[in-house]
Structure formats: C-alpha cells, structure tokens
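Model: Ready when you are.
Researcher: Fold this.
Model:
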Amino acid sequence: MSGATLAEIAEVLGHKTLAMVKRYSHLTEQHTSKVVARMNERFLS
C-alpha cells in the first residue's frame, strides 16, 4: 500500500513468484478503491 507494485516487492524480498507476494500482501478495500480510481482517471479520461 506504500505505492510499490507487487513485482517490485517480489524483487526486493526475493520471491520467485507473484503468488508468494500475494500470499503476504493484504490490501485494504480503501487502497483497492484508490487504485481503481487512478486507473480510471488515467485510461478513461
């Protein structure tokens, strides 16, 4: 939720798969909503 992508986190932590990163990442509903809003603004505007 700090702004890093799952791929960036995987690289830093040495995880070989995104599945492992997802296992330990717990995104809040508020964070997910903000991501969707940013995507809509960027791609639909």
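Researcher: Now this one.
Model:
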Amino acid sequence: MGKSLEQRLKEKARELGFDACGIARAEVPERAKKALIDFVRQGFHGTMEWMETTLERRIDPKRLMPEARSAVVCAMSYAPPPELDPLERVQDPHLGNISVYALGKDYHDVVKGRLKHLAQWLVSQTKQDVKVFVDTAPLMERALAQQAGIGWRGKHTCIVSRELGDWFFIGVILTAAELAPDAPERNHCGTCTRCLDICPTNAFLGPRKLDARRCISYLTIEHKGPIERDLRPLMGNRVFGCDDCLAICPWNKFAKPPRDERLKPKEHLKHTPLEELLALDEQAFRRMFAGTPVRRAGFERFLANACIAAGNSGDAAFVVPLKRLLSENTPPLARAMAVWALSRLLPDAEFIALRAAHLPEEEDPLVRGEWLAAGVR
C-alpha cells in the first residue's frame, strides 16, 4: 500500500528544510478566538492598532480564503548556538542585546520561500488552490499550530514543541484540499512557571495572559512614541526584542540548530557593542542590519532603544556618545532618550548644567519634556 498524501506532504516539508509539519482544519477553536478578542478589548495590544482593525478576519481563516478546508502548518528552527546564550548576553551592559531571531536573515523571506515550494508541490498533487502565510497576514498561526499537533501554547503564549523547544518559526498554507487533520497537541507545561517568573517587566498577568504594553519585545519594536519612564530601567541592554521567556523554557534541551544557514546569526551581529550602535546614522543602520528583521523597528526607534540601554549601563563612558546625540540632527525620540540616559549617568550638578545649556534651544516638545521631567538624585 502506497503512502498517503498527508505522509508524502510531511516528507516533502522535511525535504525542503522544515523541522515539523502538521495538518489542521482551516478553523480556529472558539477558546482561542475568545482569548484574542479579550486581549484586544482590554487594550493589551497597545499601539498595535492593526490587531483591532483586523480582528474579525484574524479569528476566521476563511475570511482570508473562503474556500479553505485545511491548514498545513510548518515549523523551522532558529535555535541559537551555545556561545550565544541569550540569558548571558543580557548581563553584559556594554552589549546592545538583539533577539536571537533577528540575528540572521529575515525569516519572512527564508520561511516563505520554502513554503511556496511546498505549496506548489501540494497544488501539483491536489489541483486545489492554496495561499501561503508567514506572519504578515491576519491569521492565528499559533492556534492553528496547536491544532495541527506542532506544539502547545506555552504559558508565555508562544508555541512549545517536545521536539523543538520554542525556538522556531511558523508558516501556514491554507488549501482548498480536504486533508486528514492531525491530533491537536496537549499541554505539557505542568506546574512550571519559569517563563512567567523571569519576565523583566512583569508583563504576564498569568499563564497565557500577556499585557503587550509591558513586553520588551513590543516596546522595542512595535511601540509608537516614548516608552514609559518606569519601564525603561527594566529593559537593561535589550535594544531589539527580548528572549528571556523563550530562553528559560526547559523544553529547549530538545531544540535543534537551524538547518538553513541563512537563519544562523550573521558574524557581524554576534557581538554588537552598544557604543557602536550609538554611533550609527540612518545609512549605517540600514547597512548593518540589511536583510534582517531589525530594520522593522526603524532607525529612530532602534537608536532610542540603544540610548535607554546606555542609561541602564551605569557606565559613565557612554556620556560622550550620548552627548553627541543631543544634536538637532538626531531624531527627536532618540534625542529624548539620550537626555533620559544622561540624567542617569551624570552627577546632578553636571546634568543641571547640561540642561541649562540645551533646554533654551530645544524646540521639540518630546525632548523638552524629557529635560524637564528628568529628576536629580
């Protein structure tokens, strides 16, 4: 007896570089829909307005593809090498820490390219229409991944796998073909709460309940405007994303290194001195992070994050590069965060003198607000 279409599909997925592949019906469980609706209604999505405007489409895959019957969910590992332990990197105040997933080539390009090949193969076998999704459309990939047996939704809200830990990307193919679904994966977190306990900003209200407005990944990438003053000291040296809740998960003992070389950390990003990041102009920023997810934050947001990290370092060596950023050529958000950082690194008398020199000439209301709000110790 020959292999089923579903078996051949999964074999083809692994041949193309995916570490796991599962099948679900093209529908989201009611509990997952309710959880997302509650998340948005309570305002936990912060300034991510797109989550609210796309909510109705997001909870129903058929809004994206009315003829969809099945969802093929694939996972691709991006686990960091041992020498790039994320929990060690956040202890170095002279390093601008960047989330592991952003150290290699943009996963959207890598995963989507492989997924399109798999989708083409599926069309050749079924003669049915398909659509491919990699984190850029209003689709609940995590809910579908659990239904497809890829893993379960961990207490940190990300999908955890017994074979891959939680270091992996997810891609989805919606297809009009009727495929036999896999059994959903059940929860294996047990009583463990390491991911909740380690969060630097206490962003978790409980298991699987995240307030994105306090999440460093959201704050350093998606958030619009200045980060709240009480959260800045908790960010440490994190300038793009945060891996703490992922890195602490004990299931990562089964994590596998990326099979695709493009997802491995780029050599020049394995060590990113904070001083070097503070010296970037927009052109240099684009060059340094070309082809990586870091460019998603934008130069102004990224430079502002670097200023906050410098302010958290406790090292007066950063005073000189921060003072350079007080120039009117520096984008206002970054300039404002440079003011905040200097207020933490300079003795009171020096900061007061600096404020007296710069405040009268400052016209931007955000930067003026930081000069006036910065208290002396």
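Researcher: Key takeaway?
Model: The radius of gyration is 23 Å.
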